[in-house]
Structures are given as C-alpha cells and as structure tokens.
Amino acid sequence: MADAAGGRSRAAARHCRRVRDSRERGSAASCLAQPPPSRSEWNTMTNNAAYSRLNPHMAGVRRVDYAALQDRIDAGYLMLGWADPFFPDPCLPEHVIAAAKATLDEGGAHYSLPIGSPQLRRTIAGKLARVNGMSIDPDRELIVTPGSDTGLWQAMQVVISPGDEVLNPVPSYPSNVRNVELMGGVNVPVPLDAERDFALDLDALRQRITPSSKLIVLTQPNNPTGTVHDRATLEALAKIVIDHDLLVVVDQAFEDVIYDGREFVTFATLPGMRERTITVFSLSKGMAMSGFRIGYTVAAPEIMAIMHGTAVNILGAANTAAQAAAVAALQAPSFVDGYRRTFAARRKLATEIFANVPGVRFSAPQAGLMLWLDTSSLGNSRDVADHIAQKARIIVHPGENFGGIGSGYIRIMLSALRDDIAFADALRRTADCLGSFDPQN
Ligand SMILES: Cc1ncc(COP(=O)(O)O)c(C=O)c1O
Question: Which candidate in 29, 228, 304, 355 could, as Cys together with 366 as Cys, close a disulfide (CB 3.0–4.6 Å)?
C-alpha cells in the first residue's frame, strides 16, 4: 500500500515537473492552476484518504464555481463571456425547430448509431464537399459527436499518451490546452505573434519540436484572437508536419464566420495533410445551434476506425432529435447569412467603440464572434473582468485561461443577445468601465 502511494506521489511529482517545464519552455500560463494535491494534502483537505486515488492529471485541474456563475446569470448579469450566439435569446429558424419536433412527435427518440445517423453523415459529407473542398466517405471518414468539445477530446485521445509532447499555438481555446494536461500529455505552448495579428510563428514552432513531439493542435480560425491562418503559412506548416512525422488536430468551430472576403483554408485539403489531420467541426457557432450539442469529426479511415471503435466509450451518441435538426440546418443553411451580417455589423461597431478607450489595444478579428482586447496597461485581466462585472453587471472572459500571453487580455463576445440595440448598449457600458478602470481601487 505504502509503495503504491509512494508510486502515485512520485507520478504526481513527475507530472508537476512536466507541467512546470512546459510552462517555463513556452512561458505560457498552464490551465492547471495547481499541482495535484498529495495524499497527505487530501487528508487535510477532506479527511478522506481515498481521494488520493483520484487521477493526478485530473485532480489538479482548476476548480470552477458554476453555482456562483449561475447566481450571476439569474441575477440578470449580461453574459458577454460565452461563445454562445445570441445567448440568452431565442434564435433558431423554423425549419430547424420543426425537424427536431417532428422526431419527437413521431416518437423517434431512440439511439442512433453511436457514430451518427446515416442521413446526417451523408448531409455532412455534402457540406464538406460544397464548403470545405473535401470529398469524404461518410461511413469510414466521419463521426458525429455530441458537440465538438467531445470531438476534440476524442480526437486528442486517439493520439496522446502520457508524456507525449503537444505543440499548442496560444492563446487558444482553453480546452485545447487543458485536454492535453488532463490526458497526461506535455503541453508545449507556441506563442502566436501578437505583432502580426497573432499569426503562427513557424520558427518558434520548429524550435520546440523534439523526438517526443506527436501532435499540433491548431484552432483555425483562432479563438480568442479571431486569426485566420493563411494559405502560405499553412503550406509551410504542412511541410513541417511531414518532415517530423507529426499529426494535427484542427478545431474549425468558427469556420462559418470569416470577414472581409478572406480566404479560409481547411488544413486537411493541403497535399499530404488529409491522412495526418483530424478535423473537428461544430454547429454551435456559425449556425447558433449550441444547445443541440452537435459536432462532427473527419479523419483518415485508419484513424477514424479507432474513433468509431471508441464511439460508445467516449461519445455515447449524439441526441437523435438534435441530429434531425442538424440535417435540416445543413440542408437549408441560408439563415447563417443573416447571422454573418449581424456579426459583421457588430464587429464594426465594437472596433469603433473600443478604438476610443485609452489604454486598450486590439486588431479587428479576421473571423469568429469575439473581440480580443489587450488591456495589459490597465492591469491583470481577472481584475479588469471583475471590475466590469461589478460596475456594469456584464461578464467578460479574462484572458489568462487561453494560455500564453492571455493574462493581459479580455475576450468580449460580439454574438450575445438577439437585439442589436441592447447589444450596442452593453458594449458601450463595457467600454465606459474600461475607460474608468483604476488599478488602485
Ligand atoms: C474554438 C472552439 N472549439 C470548440 C468549442 C466547443 O463547442 P461545441 O462543443 O459547442 O461544439 C468551442 C466552444 O466555445 C470553441 O470556442
């Protein structure tokens, strides 16, 4: 018993060392706020030594106080922190609602295949050909997931074993950083270049490749910076991937909202990348179907066979009525054009409003639903976010969870609320708060 406990704490110490090393190497804030508690610490904290048996990779995760967040939402705070289009207002088009209802009315609330219904997979294959330039076999190269969060988890777990190094351009979607740590992998942050609209720094990436590197996780378009990595950069990245026999997970959750006619390249369509890339998609963002929890993942048959084999273990299956709604949305997607126009107008308004706030710097996002504001001259991002919550009763996302340089930034969603006037008012109140922020108070 003592040996087992010793083994665990040695494993925990090794884990902490790895987390610390990866922090130092990339100077990025880890999502693990603290190392996992030791056996004696668990005893002090809970009086229950059984908790020292918990997975050390999981036990150190940052605690989230969801009850406090719910209290704020219930108290009427405006949520400009979540990437949930039009939250909390209704927004679904009639044909999407009708398709979900019809499934329930017909009593069709049974399991689908764990990999998704044939009809949805065929519809997604059509979308991939039309929009992404990918021709795929919906039976062997595709899986439907309950949201893309589970898709990202499954995609990474197919690759990552404890100790593997994962190159993670940051700042990035927090799960894409944290998943690596929860799986016992070693996060190797690659800072995006803040002076070039957060473009990928390929030299920085190359310098961090070691014999233990296995995977690159690319959020494209990037959340939180709204960067669209361009074709030349992605082609150069593809060469690095081939030279070092790496795999890539690409998170394309925000692919539907690209501004200024900019080209968007699906990385897997570049020569040699189809077989090395796992691409994860979502219906939550551009299609504003977050609550349906539908995403999908595309990979080469060899990799997808593993994902199909683990579908029951990791995903269960996506909700059957939600899959019917997804078919309707993907077959008649023109409603998304209206959303795009809304987001483009709000982006313009937001850049005008925040341009006049002293001490705040930003670039207009190239894609996505968010504005990433450099508030480092005002103070720590958590203090700035707290100030906005207290003064304006508006919740924004402090940047530190996004890894890398995030702690000097806050992220504001341009997609909250259905009403444009109410949204503009929220933006102005947020800007006023930033203008009046005093770090001493
Ligand atoms: C970049 C990115 N990827 C994936 C997700 C997960 O979205 P969902 O699980 O709703 O598909 C999010 C959610 O905020 C995100 O921002």
Answer: 228
pLDDT tens-place string over residues 228-270: 999 999 999 999 999 999 999 999 999 999 999 999 999 999 9
CB of 282 shorter than 6 A to ligand 1: yes
Decide if pLDDT at 17 tops 80.
Answer: no
Among 149, 177, 178, 220, name the best residue to mutate to test ligand 1's pocket (greatest count of ligand atoms within 8 A of Cβ): 149
pLDDT above 90 covers a percentage of the chain that reads: 81
Ligand 1 mean position, distance from CA 107 (Å): 30
Q: On the CB side of 107, how many CA atoms lie within 13 Å of its CA?
A: 0
Atom of ligand 1 nearest to the CA of 294: 11
Centroid of ligand 1 to alpha carbon of 283 (angstroms): 9
Please name which of 239, 182, 193 lies closest in space to residue 216, comparing C-alpha atoms: 239
Q: How far apart are CA 207 and CA 211, in angstroms?
A: 12
Q: Mind listing the pLDDT tens digit for each residue in 392-438? A: 999 999 999 898 678 899 999 999 999 999 999 999 999 999 999 88
Segment 276-294, tens digit of pLDDT:
999 999 999 999 999 999 9
155 contacts 166 by C-beta, under 8 angstroms: no
Ligand 1 contacts CB of residue 368 (under 6 A):
no
Domain limits, CATH 3.90.1150.10, in the chain: 66-80+335-435
d(CA 52, CA 247): 34
Q: What is the fold, at CATH topology level, of the domain defined by 94-331?
A: Aspartate Aminotransferase; domain 2 (3.40.640)
Q: What is the DSSP letter of 258?
A: B
Ligand 1 centroid from CA 181, angstroms: 18
Sequence-ordered list of residues with C-beta below 8 angstroms from that of 360, at least 6 positions apart, any chain: 354, 373, 374, 375, 378, 434
pLDDT value at position 2?
Answer: 31
Average pLDDT value for residue range 184-208:
97
Portions of the chain given CATH number 3.40.640.10: 94-331
Ligand 1 near 217 CB (within 6 A): no
In a mutational test of the pocket of ligand 1, which residue from 173, 217, 281 has the highest number of ligand atoms less than 8 Å from its CB?
Answer: 173
Atom of ligand 1 nearest to the CA of 84: 14
Residue 295 CB less than 6 A away from ligand 1: yes
Stronger pLDDT, 9 or 419, i.e. the higher one: 419
